[in-house]
Amino acid sequence: MDKKTSGVRKKILATIIGLAGLVLIIGGVGIVKRKRELISPLGVGRLKKERNMPLVMGFLPTWMVGKTRQYENEIQELVFLGVEVSEEGRLIWDSQSKKMNNESYLEIKRGIKRRGGRNVLGIKLFEDEKLEKFLGDKAAREQLIEELRVMVRIGSFDGVNVDFEYQGSPVKILESGFLGFLEELGAASVGEIEVDVFANTIIKGSAEQILALMERVDRLIVMAYDFHRPGMDYAGPVAPIRSPAGERNIIEISERIISLGLDKRKIVLAYPLYGYEWKTESEEFGAKIKRGWYQMASWKRVKELIKNFEFQISNFETKWDEQSMSPWMVFRENGEIHQIYYEDERSLAAKLELVKQNGLGGVGFWALGYEGEDENIWRQVRRVLSD
């Protein structure tokens, strides 16, 4: 068998493998095609210009599909996150990724498209060893790129969001293996390419590496959250604007972006719609955490807690930290001290102003659905970014 014949057979095999997963969304695609005449011709660039505000994007994780509001004009880009990637470069069609065919998601997706927004396919791989194997295997990279080409075409996506995270080092994603993969992906017909990176990727990465990454993407999403997270020793804000010396914060990210002279229009700061609840050893801000227990505190859950606690817990108190520009609360339950660090309208406004004042390309939210039916967040976004 000659090399040309072998290459053709490999390509056909890759397409067939991709189609096995794509069968999941055929029904939804048919509906999109029938409504094609209703789709606005506006691209996202023109949409942003007409609204005179940065891009507002939302991440929809698979576990929140079917649990969110039906978004109208709140967001201009919807990222379905996502479909896991194997070390062999195949899209993994498990019970979570199959939610791409969920009617609730498809309804939101169709609405985004009709209003001239963008729908993006998110892919993820979070295991260091598998990432290394995938990036070092040319056949695996070709396999994934071919599946994405088919997926974007049949699924009517406008681009691909790549969320590949090295757990051992935030700057390893800036090395040549990943940059080379982005070059290959950019040469394929997959629409615009977005990449998600940790805050420390921007803060600690070299100027040369970050600039090289920027050249290969249409949009860079910086995850400006989880500055305090499970596994740390001390409680604190998930997304602090400022922080004590030696601790990371969002201002540091912004200053680094400006100092490197990056194309700010291509950068999105992603903010949290959640915080964390911990048991702590004392009541003061930033207290030491009692290991072994924590809970996520979504925007929705905190609102409900505040409403209920006002009537049920006498020593309940909400507080505000001026340095981090973050709300937090402390209370006692069953003899133990609880602290919750969360987001509200005031902290969100500060974060939105930072995006606007620095001329960044947009703001993202992790994750859609965490806000529940509360419309205050979206009113706040429109008010601050459109002023």
Task: Provide a quick synopsis of the model.
This protein is α/β, with parallel strands linked by helices and 387 residues long. Helix content is 38%, strand content 23%.
Envelope shape: globular
| CA(first)-CA(last) distance | 65 Å
By CATH, the topology of the domain at 3-223 is: TIM Barrel
Kindly provide the name of the CATH class of the domain at 3-223: Alpha Beta
DSSP strand (E) fraction?
15-25%
The portion of residues assigned to helices is 25-40%
Query: Uncertain segments of ≥5 residues (pLDDT<50)?
Result: 1-6, 12-50
Give a quick account of the main beta sheet: strands, pairing sense, barrel closure.
8 strands, parallel, barrel
SSE order, one letter for each helix or strand: HHHEEHEHHEHEHHEHEEEHEEEHEH
CATH architecture label of the domain at 3-223: Alpha-Beta Barrel
Radius of gyration, CA atoms, in whole angstroms: 22 Å
Label the structural class: alpha/beta
Strand order of the largest sheet: 1-2-3-4-5-6-7-13
Number of helical runs? Answer: 13
* The CATH superfamily title of the domain at 3-223: Glycosidases
Overall mean confidence score, pLDDT: 89
What is the number of E strands? 13
Topology at a glance:
Blueprint: H1 3-22, H2 26-34, H3 44-51, E1 55-61, E2 77-84, H4 103-114, E3 118-125, H5 128-135, H6 138-154, E4 159-164, H7 176-186, E5 192-198, H8 199-204, H9 207-215, E6 219-223, H10 250-259, E7 267-272, E8 274-280, E9 289-298, H11 299-312, E10 317-321, E11 326-333, E12 336-341, H12 345-357, E13 362-366, H13 376-386
Parallel strand pairs: 1-2, 1-13, 2-3, 3-4, 4-5, 5-6, 6-7, 7-13
Antiparallel strand pairs: 8-9, 8-12, 10-11, 11-12
Helix pairs in contact: 1-6, 12-13
